[in-house]
Design brief:
- This protein is α+β, with helices and mostly antiparallel strands.
- Helices cover 41% and strands 22% of the residues.
- It folds into 2 domains: 6-108, Sandwich (Jelly Rolls); 148-249, Homeodomain-like (Arc Repressor Mutant, subunit A), CATH 1.10.10.60.
- Strand 4 and strand 5 form a beta hairpin.
- Helix 1 runs antiparallel to helix 2, helix 3 packs antiparallel against helix 4 and helix 4 (168-175) crosses helix 5.
Length: 251
Protein backbone atom coordinates (compact mmCIF):
# COMPACT_ATOMS: atom_id res chain seq x y z
CA UNK A 1 0.00 0.00 0.00
CA UNK A 2 1.32 3.46 -0.91
CA UNK A 3 0.58 6.31 1.48
CA UNK A 4 -0.01 9.75 -0.01
CA UNK A 5 -0.35 11.89 3.09
CA UNK A 6 2.33 13.71 5.15
CA UNK A 7 4.04 12.18 8.16
CA UNK A 8 5.11 14.57 10.91
CA UNK A 9 8.71 14.11 12.04
CA UNK A 10 9.41 17.12 14.26
CA UNK A 11 7.76 20.27 15.59
CA UNK A 12 9.30 22.95 17.76
CA UNK A 13 9.70 26.64 18.54
CA UNK A 14 13.15 28.11 19.03
CA UNK A 15 15.46 31.08 18.80
CA UNK A 16 17.39 31.55 15.59
CA UNK A 17 20.78 29.84 15.81
CA UNK A 18 23.65 32.13 16.64
CA UNK A 19 25.82 31.22 13.65
CA UNK A 20 25.75 34.05 11.15
CA UNK A 21 25.69 31.66 8.19
CA UNK A 22 25.23 27.97 7.49
CA UNK A 23 25.01 25.53 4.61
CA UNK A 24 22.16 23.04 4.91
CA UNK A 25 22.56 19.78 3.04
CA UNK A 26 19.66 18.16 1.21
CA UNK A 27 17.42 16.39 3.72
CA UNK A 28 14.86 13.59 3.30
CA UNK A 29 12.10 15.66 4.91
CA UNK A 30 10.40 18.98 4.09
CA UNK A 31 10.05 21.94 6.43
CA UNK A 32 7.50 24.67 7.09
CA UNK A 33 8.63 27.71 9.07
CA UNK A 34 6.67 30.64 10.47
CA UNK A 35 9.01 33.40 11.56
CA UNK A 36 7.88 35.60 14.46
CA UNK A 37 10.88 37.92 14.45
CA UNK A 38 14.32 38.30 12.94
CA UNK A 39 15.42 38.08 9.34
CA UNK A 40 17.29 35.39 7.39
CA UNK A 41 18.60 35.41 3.83
CA UNK A 42 18.07 32.05 2.11
CA UNK A 43 20.00 31.16 -1.06
CA UNK A 44 18.96 28.17 -3.17
CA UNK A 45 19.19 27.07 -6.78
CA UNK A 46 16.05 29.05 -7.62
CA UNK A 47 17.46 32.32 -6.25
CA UNK A 48 17.60 34.29 -3.02
CA UNK A 49 14.80 35.43 -0.75
CA UNK A 50 14.42 36.83 2.75
CA UNK A 51 12.48 35.11 5.52
CA UNK A 52 11.32 37.90 7.82
CA UNK A 53 8.61 38.47 10.45
CA UNK A 54 5.18 37.00 9.62
CA UNK A 55 6.46 35.03 6.64
CA UNK A 56 5.99 31.35 5.89
CA UNK A 57 8.94 29.49 4.37
CA UNK A 58 8.65 26.09 2.73
CA UNK A 59 11.69 23.96 1.88
CA UNK A 60 10.97 20.69 0.06
CA UNK A 61 12.88 17.51 0.70
CA UNK A 62 16.04 17.06 -1.33
CA UNK A 63 16.91 20.76 -1.59
CA UNK A 64 20.22 22.11 -0.29
CA UNK A 65 20.45 25.79 0.60
CA UNK A 66 22.55 28.41 2.41
CA UNK A 67 21.35 30.74 5.14
CA UNK A 68 22.69 34.02 6.43
CA UNK A 69 21.23 35.54 9.59
CA UNK A 70 20.57 39.23 9.10
CA UNK A 71 18.69 39.71 12.37
CA UNK A 72 18.34 37.16 15.17
CA UNK A 73 14.80 36.17 16.06
CA UNK A 74 12.31 33.41 16.82
CA UNK A 75 10.32 31.00 14.69
CA UNK A 76 8.02 28.00 14.65
CA UNK A 77 9.26 25.03 12.64
CA UNK A 78 7.57 21.86 11.40
CA UNK A 79 9.46 18.98 9.74
CA UNK A 80 7.45 16.40 7.80
CA UNK A 81 7.73 13.72 5.15
CA UNK A 82 5.79 14.17 1.91
CA UNK A 83 5.12 10.61 0.84
CA UNK A 84 3.54 11.75 -2.42
CA UNK A 85 6.95 13.15 -3.47
CA UNK A 86 5.73 16.68 -2.88
CA UNK A 87 3.57 16.83 -6.00
CA UNK A 88 1.07 19.01 -4.13
CA UNK A 89 3.67 21.59 -3.03
CA UNK A 90 6.18 23.90 -4.67
CA UNK A 91 9.32 22.09 -5.86
CA UNK A 92 11.84 24.69 -4.63
CA UNK A 93 12.42 26.66 -1.42
CA UNK A 94 10.02 29.58 -1.31
CA UNK A 95 8.95 32.27 1.14
CA UNK A 96 5.50 33.88 1.13
CA UNK A 97 3.64 36.43 3.23
CA UNK A 98 0.12 35.12 3.95
CA UNK A 99 -2.82 37.53 4.17
CA UNK A 100 -2.76 36.95 7.94
CA UNK A 101 -0.67 34.78 10.26
CA UNK A 102 -3.06 34.58 13.22
CA UNK A 103 -4.48 31.19 12.24
CA UNK A 104 -0.99 29.77 11.64
CA UNK A 105 0.24 31.00 15.04
CA UNK A 106 -2.81 29.48 16.74
CA UNK A 107 -2.29 26.12 15.02
CA UNK A 108 1.42 26.03 15.78
CA UNK A 109 0.73 26.88 19.42
CA UNK A 110 -1.98 24.22 19.70
CA UNK A 111 0.29 21.60 18.16
CA UNK A 112 3.12 22.53 20.50
CA UNK A 113 0.80 22.41 23.49
CA UNK A 114 -0.40 18.94 22.50
CA UNK A 115 3.16 17.75 21.91
CA UNK A 116 4.13 18.78 25.46
CA UNK A 117 1.16 17.02 27.05
CA UNK A 118 0.53 14.08 24.72
CA UNK A 119 -2.60 12.59 26.31
CA UNK A 120 -4.03 12.21 22.82
CA UNK A 121 -1.33 11.03 20.37
CA UNK A 122 -3.46 12.08 17.41
CA UNK A 123 -4.05 15.67 18.53
CA UNK A 124 -0.66 16.90 17.34
CA UNK A 125 -1.18 15.15 13.99
CA UNK A 126 -4.55 16.84 13.58
CA UNK A 127 -3.02 20.25 14.31
CA UNK A 128 -0.03 19.65 12.02
CA UNK A 129 -2.22 18.42 9.17
CA UNK A 130 -4.40 21.51 9.56
CA UNK A 131 -1.23 23.62 9.30
CA UNK A 132 -0.25 21.90 6.07
CA UNK A 133 -3.80 22.22 4.74
CA UNK A 134 -3.77 25.97 5.42
CA UNK A 135 -0.27 26.42 3.99
CA UNK A 136 -0.55 24.27 0.87
CA UNK A 137 -2.52 26.77 -1.29
CA UNK A 138 0.18 29.38 -0.65
CA UNK A 139 2.88 27.16 -2.11
CA UNK A 140 1.24 26.00 -5.33
CA UNK A 141 3.03 26.90 -8.56
CA UNK A 142 -0.08 28.18 -10.33
CA UNK A 143 -0.37 31.34 -8.22
CA UNK A 144 -1.05 34.68 -9.87
CA UNK A 145 0.04 38.13 -8.70
CA UNK A 146 -2.98 40.33 -7.91
CA UNK A 147 -3.53 43.47 -9.93
CA UNK A 148 -4.22 46.88 -8.38
CA UNK A 149 -8.00 46.50 -8.61
CA UNK A 150 -7.99 43.07 -6.94
CA UNK A 151 -5.71 44.42 -4.20
CA UNK A 152 -8.20 47.26 -3.63
CA UNK A 153 -11.07 44.74 -3.40
CA UNK A 154 -9.21 42.66 -0.84
CA UNK A 155 -8.42 45.80 1.14
CA UNK A 156 -12.11 46.74 1.11
CA UNK A 157 -12.96 43.22 2.32
CA UNK A 158 -10.39 43.48 5.13
CA UNK A 159 -11.75 46.85 6.22
CA UNK A 160 -15.37 45.65 6.29
CA UNK A 161 -14.98 42.03 7.38
CA UNK A 162 -16.93 42.68 10.61
CA UNK A 163 -19.95 43.89 8.64
CA UNK A 164 -22.49 41.00 8.69
CA UNK A 165 -24.17 42.49 5.61
CA UNK A 166 -21.02 42.26 3.47
CA UNK A 167 -21.72 40.18 0.36
CA UNK A 168 -19.44 38.80 -2.34
CA UNK A 169 -21.76 40.41 -4.87
CA UNK A 170 -20.72 43.83 -3.52
CA UNK A 171 -17.05 43.00 -4.12
CA UNK A 172 -17.72 41.73 -7.62
CA UNK A 173 -19.59 44.94 -8.38
CA UNK A 174 -16.62 46.98 -7.17
CA UNK A 175 -14.38 44.87 -9.39
CA UNK A 176 -16.74 45.44 -12.31
CA UNK A 177 -17.39 41.83 -13.22
CA UNK A 178 -19.67 38.88 -12.56
CA UNK A 179 -19.53 36.99 -9.28
CA UNK A 180 -18.26 33.86 -11.06
CA UNK A 181 -15.34 35.72 -12.65
CA UNK A 182 -14.53 37.57 -9.44
CA UNK A 183 -14.47 34.37 -7.39
CA UNK A 184 -12.16 32.73 -9.92
CA UNK A 185 -9.74 35.67 -10.04
CA UNK A 186 -9.71 36.07 -6.26
CA UNK A 187 -8.83 32.40 -5.79
CA UNK A 188 -5.98 32.64 -8.29
CA UNK A 189 -4.50 35.59 -6.42
CA UNK A 190 -5.19 34.69 -2.80
CA UNK A 191 -5.45 30.89 -2.89
CA UNK A 192 -8.96 30.82 -1.43
CA UNK A 193 -12.44 31.81 -2.51
CA UNK A 194 -13.63 35.24 -1.27
CA UNK A 195 -16.01 33.51 1.14
CA UNK A 196 -13.30 31.20 2.47
CA UNK A 197 -10.96 34.16 2.94
CA UNK A 198 -13.65 36.20 4.67
CA UNK A 199 -14.47 33.34 7.02
CA UNK A 200 -10.82 32.78 7.91
CA UNK A 201 -10.27 36.48 8.63
CA UNK A 202 -13.37 36.59 10.81
CA UNK A 203 -12.20 33.50 12.68
CA UNK A 204 -8.82 35.09 13.25
CA UNK A 205 -10.49 38.15 14.73
CA UNK A 206 -12.68 35.90 16.87
CA UNK A 207 -9.55 34.13 18.17
CA UNK A 208 -7.97 37.43 19.14
CA UNK A 209 -11.14 38.54 20.94
CA UNK A 210 -11.49 35.21 22.76
CA UNK A 211 -7.86 35.35 23.88
CA UNK A 212 -8.57 38.61 25.75
CA UNK A 213 -11.22 36.77 27.83
CA UNK A 214 -13.17 40.04 27.98
CA UNK A 215 -16.17 38.97 25.88
CA UNK A 216 -18.79 36.28 25.90
CA UNK A 217 -19.02 33.90 22.95
CA UNK A 218 -22.11 35.75 21.74
CA UNK A 219 -20.29 39.10 21.87
CA UNK A 220 -17.31 37.67 19.99
CA UNK A 221 -19.56 36.26 17.27
CA UNK A 222 -21.21 39.65 16.76
CA UNK A 223 -17.97 41.64 16.85
CA UNK A 224 -16.37 39.26 14.33
CA UNK A 225 -19.19 39.73 11.83
CA UNK A 226 -21.31 36.60 12.39
CA UNK A 227 -25.06 37.13 12.57
CA UNK A 228 -25.70 33.63 13.98
CA UNK A 229 -24.12 32.41 17.22
CA UNK A 230 -24.87 28.76 16.47
CA UNK A 231 -23.28 29.02 13.00
CA UNK A 232 -20.25 30.78 14.48
CA UNK A 233 -19.81 28.10 17.13
CA UNK A 234 -20.15 25.27 14.61
CA UNK A 235 -17.69 26.86 12.16
CA UNK A 236 -15.25 27.71 14.93
CA UNK A 237 -15.16 24.08 16.08
CA UNK A 238 -14.79 22.85 12.50
CA UNK A 239 -11.88 25.21 11.76
CA UNK A 240 -10.10 25.30 15.12
CA UNK A 241 -10.89 21.86 16.52
CA UNK A 242 -12.42 23.17 19.77
CA UNK A 243 -15.45 25.20 20.77
CA UNK A 244 -15.12 28.98 21.22
CA UNK A 245 -15.54 28.55 24.96
CA UNK A 246 -12.82 25.87 25.13
CA UNK A 247 -10.49 28.07 23.08
CA UNK A 248 -11.14 31.07 25.34
CA UNK A 249 -10.56 29.07 28.52
CA UNK A 250 -7.47 27.31 27.14
CA UNK A 251 -8.90 23.81 27.41
Amino acid sequence: MTLDHPVITDLFFHDTVFRTSASVKARPFSSLTLRKSGKVLISATNGEFISGPNTLTFVPAGCAYDTQILEEGEMYLLHFWLLDDGKNFYRHPICVTPPSTTAFVSLFERALRHSRAPQDPYAILADAYRLLSEARPLFLEDSQAPNAKMIACKQFLDEHLCDPDLRIAHLAERYGCSEVYFRREFRKCYHASPLEYLKKRRMEMACRLLETRLYSVAEVATRAGFDSISYFSAEFRRMMGVSPREYRDGE
